[in-house]
Each structure stands twice: as structure tokens, then as C-alpha cells.
Amino acid sequence: MSILSVQNINLARGGLKILDNLSLEAQAGHVTSVIGPNGAGKTTIFNVISGFMRPDSGAVVYDGRNVTSMLPEKLCNMGLARTFQRVRGLPSLSVRDNIVVGALNRTSSVRQAKKEADALIEELDLGEYRDQSATSLSIGTRKIVEVARVLSTGPNVVLLDEVMGGLGPSEVNIMVEFIRKLPERGIAVLLVEHHMEAVMSVSDHIVVINRGRNLAEGTPTEVAQDPGVIEAYLGSEASNA
Amino acid sequence: MLDVIIYGLLAGGVLSLVAVGLTLIFGIMDITNFAHGEFMMLGMLGTATVSISLGVSPYVAVLLVAIAGIVMGVVIHFVIIKQTLGKSLYVQVFATFGLSILLQSIATMIFGTKYIALDDPLASSRVNIFGTDVEAAKLIAFVVGIALVIGIWFWLNKTRQGREIRAVAQDTYAARVVGIRPGRAYVIIFTVGVVFAVIAGGLVVPSQIANAYSGTTFTLISFVIVVLGGFGSVPGALVGGLSIGLVQAFTGVYIGTQWQQASIFVIFVLVLLLRPQGLFGRKSGDSALVGGHE
Amino acid sequence: MKNRLIILAAVSAAAILIALTSDNRFFIDTVILALIFAGFATAWNFAGGMTGLFSLGHGGLFAVGAYTPVLLREYFGVPTLVGVLLAAVFATLAALLIGAMSLRLRGHYFALATLAFTVIVTILLTNFGSVTGGDEGISLPFANSPMDLIFQEKTSYLYLALGLYIITTLTAIIVIDSKLGFQMRALREDEVTARSMGVSALRTKLIAVMMSGFFSGLAGAVFAHYTLYITPGNTAAVAVSLQPALMAIIGGMAGVFGPLVGAFLITLLKQQLITVIGADIPGLSNAFYGGLLLLSILVLPNGLIGLGKLPPLQRARNWIASRLPPRHRAESAPPPGDHDSSGSTRSTTEVNK
Ligand SMILES: Nc1ncnc2c1ncn2[C@@H]1O[C@H](COP(=O)(O)OP(=O)(O)OP(=O)(O)O)[C@@H](O)[C@H]1O
Ligand SMILES: [Mg+2]
User: Fold this and answer.
1) Model pTM?
2) Where are the domain boundaries for CATH 1.10.3470 in chain C?
3) Nearest to C284 among B94, B100, B105 (CB)
4) What is the ipTM of this complex?
5) Does residue A85 have its Cβ closer than 6 Å to ligand 1?
6) What CATH number matches the domain at A1-79+156-164+186-241, 3.40.50.620, 3.40.47.10, 3.40.50.700, 3.40.50.300?
7) Contact, B215 vs B160, CB < 8 A?
8) Among B95, B258, B285, whose Cβ lies nearest the Cβ of C350?
9) What is the pLDDT of residue B68?
């Protein structure tokens, strides 16, 4: 059974239909990617899932519970965490404190949270940035901190919104390796990404959306061969390249 | 009843004039200006003093004072306001708060702390509006106030320069790209705001005594009007000013003058909580609810 | 934590030393007022500096604290010490109004709404003159009755003010390193991010303003018993309401001791300006005060402590970074010195992109 199931979400803003009967699922231990052209509604569906936007209709079911429009902090407490496409972070706090705040999602002991933060910093090789403020880092490092921040909350489901945007090739490789390891912790990963190579290599399942609607879905190979997808999305990407 | 409405509207016209400057400074420069009422105070004391010492009509004196106001506006903009553009809210609040203390104390040094009253034959003559007998000064203040507010609205909406200035408010970066210099728009808007407040002071002083501490109340009332009408909205300032004039008049007559201030601040808090974008403002992200939904 | 406790102990020792050795009444008076306002500013900082809730309405809470024990004693014969406790409790409840505003309003909307709160309190105190003495306020009887917190000796007040400062600051020291402290900072930095990391905006903000209200109320009560004269003008007026924020900013909002530094500087400055410049020219000392205030806020937007915290190395790095073309800088880094409490101006819905 899927840990996260997004069912028939409709959402309009300013008279414009942004999400149109959109559905998707995420499985524990799997990487599910959501792809689609710019403005397809990927960030918006993340906002709906994470409680920042209220859909007009449809349901978000997490762990068997209807959690539609629940408060974002509540959802995070329940194990559903996200990154932001435009990296926000807690700007003037140190990298370590950013992660400590996340770790405090599961414990009341600051000492324990610091210990967990340090372990995560070690694991992600962020040691040299530990005491720097999040804004002073390069964009690549900030994206890794962004992922660390989310993992520190101890999630069952993570929503990653373009965590590879702006990274150099070697940084993309590090990120891909890292994302690959997440399912081993039993985490369900929902990934929004424009970097096709990375998506193809890391995903178990891909959902393609366009103009707020489901367009196609399947394994990376199935999706890559779908004529509709090539038409709407990969085609334009390919011709850009 | 009709007389209360007339008194209220007449008082509201000048309030619109003070508030329109503040709302433009808010809307276009994104500056929270706590010194705004002090400009009105300087206009009151300046006009009264010039009128008395030169023996001219206050309506001539206010023109001279307004010209001084232009110089003051430009200088204060470059020396102080410009340094706070784009800075945190608290830098703006306390820089302009410091400015208001400074202006108040300078006024104390020049004019003393005594109340100044002005006696002008034209201003104190009576006119009849729809059967209600009012001081000419109030009518003049109302007409000039409304005319200036409508004038600034025309200028912002119907002239090239005005449209350029509005473009800066909408998107500073895009405005720069098409060759508009935001810096110039800022000086103009700030100075217009100062001069309007100065003129408003000159217009009310024939019918109202003033001293160096008369400005603070107007700062607060202007904030109320700006919030009521929506940050940056000229029609909002007009309607907001008139409404506040009415509310004050009605409270004064039916509840008691000591509750005039309280009534507008209660309305202020209610409007902030229920409709933060104001009656005329565009909806902004600031209206976000606790649930994080827009 | 340990360092902060040592600093607090040193501050207390210095204050006690002054109480024991100085017989300069004027100087002791300055120290007492500074300590009361240091307590008030530290109380403000729970909301303002730590959580990013830039309140301009704390004068209202201070006034609730000042009037409560005096009125309760006068009308109901409530013992002063009980009254002081109730003062803190009422101020805590009043602070919930500011808390409610913080849930719905951000940035200058919040600042203005809180300002309106203190204006309304001022008007209420003025208009219910039959109870509160109106504009004229209330004079407390000058009698030596320690149980009523009215003392003959100035030094007794110094100990009282020090006590207020110590409990407020001890609470701040405990909170700042606790889970709550981290969550408050997270909200200050970025409300959207904080909430996405499981920080409850509602709970954290309300607790922050309640702590802030509690200690502001205590400060108001101590102030009333020291000056023995309370009016709407010296408790709730806009000028008073802005004081704690101003002191915290001048001193530095980031840590625990900025408000203390700011309170001493501002209190000393005001007293000294009057002594040095005199009252011969009315307005002159105030003009200097306004001018210095303006200058320091423009030159030191992060406060004095903020200046010290920035190691020279980092300053040099910032300086070099500011000279490089933009693409060498970390993407979308906000301009230095401009990202502290302004976090509160960001809206909750700004989650796209
Ligand atoms: N609050 C809103 N009000 C109005 N329009 C919105 C709102 N939020 C998003 N949109 C619009 O909805 C569409 C989908 O936006 P979204 O950010 O979800 O796209 P996306 O798939 O994440 O694109 P990208 O790949 O560029 O990140 C866009 O056209 C956007 O302008
Ligand atoms: Mg997106």
C-alpha cells in the first residue's frame, strides 16, 4: 500500500486552473519522480501535500489518514517533510542549528538533537561548514544542507523540489548517490527534478504532469518511450539540448 | 445629523491630504514613516508664525512655508530616508522615530512649547453649507485638500512621469530595465508627501491651535487612514480620510469627544485583523492566515 | 549557558557593589531606571529579538503591570506582593492580544497593530479618569512600607530592580538554549521553513508573547513602585512603548545581554544630555537625543553586540564578497546586516519558486 496517496486534486487561483484532477502515489522504499514542463504545477502539488495550500477539492491521504489541508507543522510532526525549490533555510543560523531545529521535531532534548545533527553532518560530509551561516554557502552546499534539514526531521516521506537545480555535474552525482540511499532507510521519496539524466537513473517510478493534469506514468523506460511524453516534454527538452 | 456629516467630511478632507503623502511613501518607497505628522506640525507652526510676523494672510503664508517644505523634503530624503531604503522594518521605524524627536525638539527650540493661535478675518468668517453654519477656514481646508489629493491622483495616473513612478512601485527592477530611475521617483514622492503634510498643517492652523507636540496625533491618524484605505492607494487615502473624519465627528457628538481617538483605533485594529489589505488595497501575502493558506 | 550565567553574575555583582559603595543619588537613580528598563527590554526581546515579533505595543503591557497592583491595593486592598503577581498575570493575558495579532499579521502590519494596542490602552487609562486618575495619573503615598514595595532607601530599590532583571534574564538564558528557543529562532528566521520543519507557529508565538508579557508586567509594577507616580504618559504612551524595542536594537537583539547594554546606554544618554546640555534651551537635549538615535540606528543596524559578534575575519570576507561581481557570491544571499529580524516580513504563502 502507498504511504502517500494524492487523489484528484483540483486547485484554481485567480480564475486559473493550476491543478486539474491530479493524482499520484508514493511508496515506502521507492523514489517516485514527478516531472513536467515549467509551470506544470509540480511545486503547487508539493504545496498542497505539505499543507501550505488548500486544494478546492481532492484528498491527500498519508499513512491511511486523510490529511488534506492539515497545518504544515502538523504534517511534519507526522513524518512528511519537504524542501523548497527556492532554497529558504533559516538564513542567519549556522548549518548545525538549521539541522538541530529539524532534529527537535522528534525529541525535546536539545542535547539529543545536537547529537543527531552532528551525526547527519558527518554522514553528509558537511563538517567544514558546520558553524557557517546557511547563506554564506555555495549553492551546491546549500542544496545539500536543504536536504539535511529535511532528513533531520525524521521523515517517512520526503518531497524534494529541484534539489539539483544549479548544481555542477560532480555535485549532481553526489546528490544522486545520496537520494539513492534514502529508500534504504524506508523513506518514500517524491522527487521533482528537471535534470532528466538524474531522474532516469534514480527513479523507480515516474509521474508526468502537464498543465496540472496527469499525462503519463510508469517506469523510467516506459515513460521515456511514451509518445505523448516525448511530445509534451522530453521532445522540447531534447530539442533544447 | 446632517451637520455632523458636514463637520466630519470637512475635517476628513485635510486628513486625506496628510495621509495621501504617507500612503505614497509606504506604497512606492516601502518606508514606514513615523515622522510624517511632524511635517504637518511644522506646517501649522510655520504658517502661523509667518502669517503673524509678516502680517499676511495664512493662505499666503502657507505658500511660502510649502516652498520651504520642498527644501526640507529633499534634504531629509537624501540625508536620512535614502539610507533606510530597503532596510529592515526596525531600522526604518527607529530612524524615522529619531527624526520625529529631532523635528519636535527643533520646533520646540524655534517656536517654544506654547500653543499658537491664529486669527484671520477670512478664515473665521462663517459660511452656510446646506443650512449648516461652518467656519470658512474649514471649508477652504476641505476644498484645497480634496483638490490636491485628486490632483496627485491625476498626476500619477494620467501623466507619463506619474506612470513611471507607479511602475517603480510595482517592480523596481523592471522599471530600472526600461530606463526609469527609481531614485528620482523616491525623491519626488517623499518630497510631495512632506509638502502635502506641510500644506495640510497650514490649512488647519487658522481654525485649530497648535504647538510643537501637535504632530504625533496626526502621525497616528494618518497610519489609521493608510491602513483603512490600503497601503499605497490614493483613492483609499481619500475615502479613508473622509471616513475617519466622519467617525470622529459622530463619536464626538454621540459618544463623547474623549472617545474620538479610541473609536478610530478600534476600527484600525479591526480592519487590520479582518482585511489587512485595506478597503482599496491589492491583496498582499501579508494577509496570510495562520493556516498558511492564502 | 555557562558563559551567560557568569556574565549575569558579574552584572549582579557590579550592581550590588554600586549599591554598597555609591552615595551619589543621581548615579544610583540612573542605575535603577536602567535596570528596570533592562528588564523590560529583555522581556520585549522574547517576542522581538528571539521570535522576530517586532512589537511596538509593549507599553500597553508595561502599563497593565504598573496600574494593576496600585489599583488593586487602592480599591480592593489586595496586598502589594499579590498585586504584583497579578500584574504579571494580567499582562500575560493582555499579551495574548498581541499574540493573536502576530498570527495574522506580519511586518509593518503587525508593528502598526501593536502600536494601536498601546494607543488604545493609553486612551482607556486617560478616559476612565475616575478610576485611573486620567491624564494626571496616580501618585503613590511616599511612606516607608517594604511590604508595599515602597522603600526609604534608594539602594533597596536597586536590589528590587536587580531582582527583576535577574529573573527575567535567567529565564531568557534558559529559554535561548532550549527547544523552545531554537523554535523561536527558527520562526524569526523564516516562518515558512520553520513550519515545514515541524515548528508550531501558533504555540511558539503565543508562548513567546506570554513570557514577554509576564516580565513586561513585572517591570511595569516595579517601575510604578519606584517612581511612585504613574500616568498614561509614562507607562503606555507611544514614546514608552518604543523604548524596549529601541534598547534591544541599540544593544543588539541576537543574544541575551543586548537589551541590558541598550538600556544602560539610552538611560545614561538621556540623563547625561540633560545634565550636560541643561534645560536652558528647551528641546536642545532632546534634539541631541533624536539625532544620536538616528545616527546610531543608521550606522549600527545590528546593535553594539552585533558589531562585536562579527569576527574580523568574517567582516573581511563579507567585504571582499561585496566587491566581487554578483555571480561569485552565494546565490540570493541577502545583503549583509539585513537578514536578522526582517524574517517576520516574509509572508507565509510565498512558497512558490
Ligand atoms: N498562488 C498562486 N496564484 C496564482 N498562480 C499561481 C499560484 N501558484 C502557482 N501559480 C501558477 O501555477 C502554475 C504552476 O506553478 P508551479 O510553480 O507549480 O510550476 P512548476 O511545475 O513547479 O514549474 P517549475 O518547473 O518552473 O518550477 C504557474 O503558472 C504559476 O504561475
Ligand atoms: Mg516548481
Assistant:
1) 0.87
2) 2-309
3) B105
4) 0.91
5) yes
6) 3.40.50.300
7) no
8) B285
9) 95
